[in-house]
């Protein structure tokens, strides 16, 4: 871990957080909601300046940010306050942060696909002795689905295999305009690092050059892939397939950025930029998904209370809601401490 990786990680995370908070800020302004402070970072204020009724601040701790709209001030129902607006207006403000993260991920994905190309789910061959060969699959076959789940980019296939080790898979593919379906049986084989995993014997490689339309199309598939990746990772966490010690926080992000820069540097500045863009897509999509989870203190948790209010046509007791969010925030802070501890132990 060096100063360059720390600076790059801070810049990367800061841009993503700013864009998230910009979503809240933009919808708040469009709905006539007063924004008291828009800040980058957490903790004591290093610098702050008021502009059009909003204080824009830079905080001491570089990770995180906030768009303070007085949503926790339950007694403030004056004109322009968050709680004076309709439930639908407040919903739009809350959900705007995660949506802006998905928009950022999409824009970066389109840039990367237009620059590098896209990985079509088309076979370049099959591995001898594995099920794909035995079922008659061959180079040029385009895989369209696995067990009924649509496939649009190649990486969805190894991701599915990694999450369903040792399981059979019903694979649908196209060849010369005709659709075929086969059942593939996984077989244990040795990976490049010497570890053993199950494989179907499917191989592909390389990228296809994109035009304007395919950049837009496959940029969307790229975001879909990372959103699905995030959900699958959460599922593994909930089911105990991975532990909390395998999660990464700010320290882990800095370490990963350092490793990425080190690996990409020999290939030039453009390779480093491309790697950072790819990581930004992952982080932005991840932040969007995580913030929509129905957990207290997160945007998704606040959205749950607003949905309940919309259904009941009556607001949940503000004090009880505030207590739920406070407890949720404390739990999140404790989780961050645990994750940071494991990051430090893993790295050092």
Protein described:
The protein has 348 residues and is an alpha+beta fold. It folds into two domains: 224 residues, no CATH class; 79 residues, PDZ domain (Pdz3 Domain, Roll), CATH 2.30.42. Helices cover 52% and strands 18% of the residues. The protein contains nine helices and ten strands. The strands form four sheets. The protein has a four-stranded antiparallel beta sheet, with no helix packed on it. A two-stranded antiparallel sheet has the order 1-2. It is globular and about 70 Å long. The model has no long low-confidence stretch (mean pLDDT 88).
What's the helix and strand layout?
Blueprint: H1 3-30, E1 37-51, E2 54-68, H2 87-116, E3 125-126, H3 131-134, E4 142-146, E5 149-150, H4 156-163, E6 169-175, E7 178-184, E8 187-190, E9 196-199, E10 202-203, H5 212-238, H6 250-264, H7 269-292, H8 299-312, H9 318-347
Antiparallel strand pairs: 1-2, 3-10, 4-5, 4-6, 6-7, 8-9
Helix pairs in contact: 1-2, 1-6, 1-7, 2-5, 2-7, 2-8, 5-7, 6-7, 6-9
